[in-house]
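Students often ask what a holo structure prediction actually looks like on paper. The answer is less mysterious than it sounds. You provide the chain, you provide the ligand, and the output is a string of discrete structure tokens encoding the 3D arrangement of the protein together with fructose -6-phosphate.
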Amino acid sequence: MCGIVGYLGKKDCTKVLLDSLSKLEYRGYDSAGIAVFENDSIKVAKTKGRIAQLEERINHEGGIKGNCGIGHTRWATHGEPSDVNSHPHGDANISIVHNGIIENYSKIKSFLETKGYVFESQTDTETVAKLLDFYYDGDPLNTIKNVLGEIEGSYALGILFKDFPDRIYAVRKDSPLIVGIGDDEAFIASDVPAFLKYTNKYYLLDTNEIVVLSNDGVEIFDKHGAPIEKELMVADWDMEAAEKGGYEHFMLKEINEQPAAINATISPRIKDGMPDLSECGLTQEKLAAYSNIFVVACGTAMHAGLVGKYVIESIGRIPVIVDVASEFRYRNPIVTDKDLVIVVSQSGETADTLEALKLSRKKGADTLAIVNVVGSSIAREADMVIYTHAGPEISVASTKAYSVQIAVFYLLAFELAYAKGAISQEECIRLTKELQSVPATLEIVLKQDELCKYVASTLVNAENLLYIGRGLDYALSMEGSLKLKEISYIHSESYAAGELKHGTISLVTDTMPIIAVATQRDLFDKTVSNAKEVKARGGKVIFVSHSYINVDDDVADYKIGLPTIDDLLMPMVAVVPLQLIAYYTSVLRGNDVDKPRNLAKSVTVE
Ligand code: F6R
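The corresponding structure tokens follow.
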């Protein structure tokens, strides 16, 4: 949802900004721009399109030379992608970049129009630029404080004032913004990968804290203007983590990183063969005492919660309610102080998930965040945090983040089931060991790359597609379906296999491929019957199941065979071919896999 950067140092600022923006393009990529101090004036270049187009434009216009500036890559909210709607906004005196939404911008705009201001763009951001101008009194800090008193909504802002060359001012509320600290240089950015090439040290900013980057150093002020000290954080992500490393796309790289990511996430949480989540304050006594568990998240993270539900309910015997955050937060959910609310988020910044979390806390529930980004808003807001260790996920379509999220749900379910006396210690150790075997099993599954590519080639011309499964396979197939549709643009839906004949089977023809996931052996025969029903109506069936199980021609056209581990854990294995099929279908259709149309990672608006 828009990426913002800022650089102050001795390097060529334009080069650094373009480089940093390219690392944030996953957050939005419909237009881009920079503003740099050149000989004490603010020089701006911006354009509709990608960073590469911005670079072309800058070079075409003779370049911009300077050591201090701000940049932006956009995901449009107010106003179509166009040159005029691109950031930075402002004039020769003040220039800003913004991530977020100013909810009361119309009111501010009307007020400013009465004061003679004329607006060029359709953006909410331009009102902030003009409001800064309206309040400007020669003191940037005071001016920003006045503006913060007027604007409502979410924002991360980077600001240049012409009267204060070689200074960057920045502030945030409900949109991410961090301050990178290098040797003789400093950065502002929406996310760590933007400056990881230059430094891994950074400060987190809290709501309405204002940071000033100048040649004298970095100063941070609280919302009343008093200087404050912050703890310096160190990111344990290395630079390679944010590079493609020889893969054609980040998505393929991230699919292949899953064994290592799962290992890094579960290993520190297994003690003497037993899961141990006490690091976050989640003791066995606490776990055993909850009446209900809610899992609230969006998209892929919500799908991880669905797997969590099946696993926790099946062995832990506690009701688990899974909800999409945008619904949960507005339906006055029946959550009490006897419940645990688990929010799941890769970015830790998803606006709806964050608000659902705040609501749950208000209702007195214990809250646990399963989050990938350290120090993110959701991590900071929750009572307890379990960090997944997936490393940076750059591809817009989430893959490794999903796998590590479900890995955490397994640990949680095993510990909970043991704490409640629902499984013995021996069983808990057995299941935990089985989970530890997943990374090695995935290395085998990843070798089926060519088969998945072949299967994808049979889907390339499809316009519609169905995924079916039962139990855990149904939960997993929802993720398979989302993955395919978001990057291949083929319409796809996921159905509980038994539900198909209650209406949807009327859609089945020989142009409608069906991916049937059948890894749950107690439900296997039933899913086979459903696949046969599809085949009998001309549908093409791709069957995903254990490799040792043979299926006849009246069941499937193609079969993807998987190594066998405990059925409960099979989603961790079966997700890989679903991800690869989605990936190759997108590649074969010539799509921009890592940056699918209309999407952006880290959805910080409602
Ligand atoms: C799909 C995808 C999205 C995210 C969703 C939540 O591939 O990535 O559905 O899962 O936007 O994002 P986070 O996990 O950052 O809260």
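Residues 298-301, 345-347, 350, 353, 397-398, 486, 602-603 surround fructose -6-phosphate (CB under 6 Å).
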